[in-house]
Amino acid sequence: MLGWELPPYNSGGLGIACYQLCKALSKKSEIDIEFILPYEADHGVDFMKVTSATNQDVDDFLLSGSAYDSNYFLQVNSKHNLLDMHDQQSLYEHAVTRIADANEYDIVHAHDWLTFSAAIRLKRDKKWPIILHVHSVESDRAGSKIGNPLVMEIESTAFHMADRIIAVSERTKRSIIEDYDIPADKIEVIHNSIDVSNIQTLEGENAYKYVTLMKRHGYRVVVNVGRLTVQKGLPNLLHAAKKVVEKVPKTIFLIVGSGEQYNELIELAADLGIGDNVLFADFQRGKNWRDTFSIGDLFVMPSISEPFGLTPLEAIGFGTPALVSKQSGISEVLKNCLKVDFWDIDEMANKISGVMLSDALRDELWINSYKEFDKLSWHEASVKVVELYKSHSIGAVA
Amino acid sequence: MSKAIVLYLHVHQPYRVKHYTVYDTGSNHNYFDSEFDSNTSNERILKKVAEKSYIPTNKTLLDLIQKYPEFKINLSMTGTVIEQMQKWSPESLASFQELVSTGRVEILAETYHHSLAFFYSRPEFEMQVDMHRRKIEEVFGQTPRVFRNTELAYNNELAVWANNAGFKGILAEGWDPILDWRSPNYVYRPVNTDNIRLLLKNYKLSDDIAFRFGNSDWIEYPLTADKFSHWVSEDPNGTNFNLFMDYETFGEHQWHESGILGFLEHLPKEWLANDNHTFMTVSEAIDTFESQDSIDVPNTVTWADTERDLSAWLGNALQGTSITGLYAMENDILSSNDLSLIDDWRRLQTSDHFYYMCTKWFNDGDIHAYFSPYESPYEAYLNYMNAFRDLRFRLAEKGFAV
Asked: In this structure, what CATH number is given to the domain that contains residue A170?
């Protein structure tokens, strides 16, 4: 398996999805996975072999940009004299080729565009079947139809050469068909998932002491966790927030994450006159991250384009119902949540206000969404993946 | 008729807010106790400025006072900087006290916390002016009689207030639009007042020292005391030449290497070479010279940047959000009777906090115009807002409605 990141060194959902899928796959006796990463680090993984393609330290590697920074691909990082994304990608491709020369594999399963060049190379040199797992396409990451053309070219070539493509949602499948002219029957939708056991227990007092106290004084809380980039649609949430605060002044918006829109969003909240109501808490892990989900009365994911979107499920797992944009993969899977078009600010404000004003609605939404959540598991997804392996692998063992 | 240089130096340090996060809010109430090595360490900065500016400059000033009987200066010192000297550099404070004890230093009145309270709350403003008066009386044994507002922010209304409060004088920027055809080098009277007099900063001459002195690209570089005295003499009729600037010009804004202290040392000798020339305190200038005209300033004028208005402190939404939020708490804060809560609230009124949130230079990438211990105005705002919300947290814990 070719991947770009695994927790705890993940910059977002890609690493988590890879980790969970592999964990579920590893329970199948016929599957042995070697997961090849572009950097060196200890992930504490015991259910599969994790190989570092290069001897780069993970901290240096992360300076090259994250798996989502496809715009870095056009830039040269001269400041640190480090590799840019383009160099990282070709370094990875060559390193993977060396590893492949010394080993035999039945199938190559590659996650997202950064690993696709390496996958194509193996297909050409070794004739090994390749399955491309699409967690996002360039138009998702760019937040519009116009992405980085170099990245789109890599994706396009890879999609055409792939033996099979896995899309994380119907929405992603449609993009691959429409934007890359790939026949529908080459693409299988396998939704991401979550296991109840993934949700760690909350411990101690909630880290948000101010928010906790304000809740006791009648405030209600909207939370968002994610990268602050165009794709995530945060400006629309803030515009909706202004309308919510007009109607329900005792509303707090808690934004947890970092990204290139950080300063812009801070300024926008102040410009909209809701600077006091919007709290920015930067990127968080661990207890602060978990406590964010649990302090909320509503989790909002206003993404302009979200191939899947795991965070609403995490929120539900931690006890908070969700409002998601209809432009997300999760909206195909989850019934008991509120849904809104990312551009419909009035409706977004209306739905948020409704939950802020009614604890009964909040509780009802959550109880029912938790029932759905409780049934989810990576097991089904892993069964589908194994079937794909079987239909494409050359040998008996995938 | 004699001609006087009225040299006025403003001494101030704020309590900078440390990196204070959403998670600190409600967990600890210490907004100002940065690690010593951090950019926002008040103790480290005060000690550095004391060493580079206060101590050596006071030594020079004391020498000049002892050497030239005509040499006099004016100082204003905020309550926050006096507190910080008491805590972290008593020797600096002692050197100021020694200077003042010569009887040739006049101290001006202002707000204790270097705040913009005049524009948000008159009772709070008056309280801070009174707190400052008491502090100056206690530390220096002098009662200020001339008022300067934070950032020299001035308008007609402020002048009327100062007049009614019994001040004999008030300072403002000698900005061309308010002077029209007039010269800043005279004593004036604010409109709608009777007793009080207005002294206007000669910003060209003041900024030659405060801003341009060390700039080697400046056509007049290097500026010598001889040349500067000559410039001041060029006005044949002006009576008082008001050189107003930050005290930290000497040794901090202008480094020692620029020769700024040498300039200060030589200025009295060059200026006093003419028998008609002297130095005056602000009160002396007001007592000596007749008011030449009345000055009308309906809109607020400050001594800052090219706009000379309050936009550097109140021009954007970050600043507006934080300052209006802070003053909206006034009644609750004061009625809490919690002295440490009231003190923290007042420390957060210091105008520097809002200046750090100014985006107009940050966007231009003009770092030279932007003195801030923070990486960005956004970071300054977030820290401030989290501290501000912690004040609300403390109020809520005391049972105040939020």
From this structure: 3.40.50.2000
A266 contacts B26? CB cut-off 8 A: no
Q: Could you tell me if B155 and B177 are in contact, meaning their C-beta atoms sit under 8 angstroms apart?
A: no
Please state the φ and ψ torsions of residue B84, each to the nearest 5 degrees: -65, -40
So what's the ipTM on this one?
A: 0.89
Q: Do A262 and B378 touch (CB under 8 A)?
A: yes
| A251-256 vs A278-280, strand pairing mode | parallel
Give the Cα separation of A157 and A44 in Å (integer). 35
Interface of B with A (CB under 8 A): 21-23, 25-27, 316-318, 320-322, 325, 359, 376, 378, 381-382, 385-386, 388-390, 392-393, 396-397, 401-402
Query: Has residue A2 been placed in a domain?
Result: no
Three-state secondary-structure class, residue A183: coil
pLDDT 10s per residue in chain B (402 long)? 689 999 999 999 999 999 999 999 999 999 999 999 999 999 999 999 999 999 999 999 999 999 999 999 999 999 999 999 999 999 999 999 999 999 999 999 999 999 999 999 999 999 999 999 999 999 999 999 999 999 999 999 999 999 999 999 999 999 999 999 999 999 999 999 999 999 999 999 999 999 999 999 999 999 999 999 999 999 999 999 999 999 999 999 998 899 999 999 999 999 999 999 999 999 999 999 999 999 999 999 999 888 899 999 999 999 999 999 999 999 999 999 999 999 999 999 999 999 999 988 776 555 445 589 999 999 999 999 999 999 999 999 999 998
Q: What pTM was estimated for this model as a whole?
A: 0.91
Comparing CB atoms, the residue among A266, A267, A279 nearest residue B22 is A279
A8 within a domain of the structure (yes/no): no
Token pair recorded at residue A198: 């993934």
- Binary contact (B25, A212; C-beta < 8 A): no
Torsion of CA A204, A206, A207, A211, to 10 degrees: -160
- State the residue range of the domain holding A157: 13-193+378-392
Q: How far apart are CA B302 and CA A149, in angstroms?
A: 52
Say yes or no: A149 and A218 in one domain: no
| A398 belongs to a structural domain | no
C-alpha dist (Å) from residue A122 to A109, A158, A167, B246 = 11, 11, 21, 69
The closest of B103, B108, B48, B99 to B74, measured between CA atoms, is B108
Task: State the smallest CA–CA distance between residue A300 and chain B in angstroms.
Answer: 19
Same domain, A67 and A55: yes
**B286 CA to chain A: closest CA distance, Å?**
45
Q: Give a yes or no: residue A255 inside a domain.
A: yes
Which of A266, A274, A287 has the most B C-beta neighbours within 10 Å, making it the best mutation to test the interface with B? A266
- Looking at the structure, tell me whether residues A70 and A123 fall in a common domain: yes
Residues in chain B closer than 8 A to A213 (CB atoms): 26, 393, 396-397
Domain identity same for A172 and A63: yes
Which CA distances in Å does A3 have to A22, A82, A100, A314, B337?
A: 11, 21, 15, 22, 60
Of A207, A254, A276, the CB nearest to B325: A276
As annotated, the active-site residues of B are 151
The mean pLDDT value for A137-152 works out to 84
Structural domain tally of chain A?
2
User: Band of the pLDDT at A67, cuts 50, 70, 90?
Assistant: low
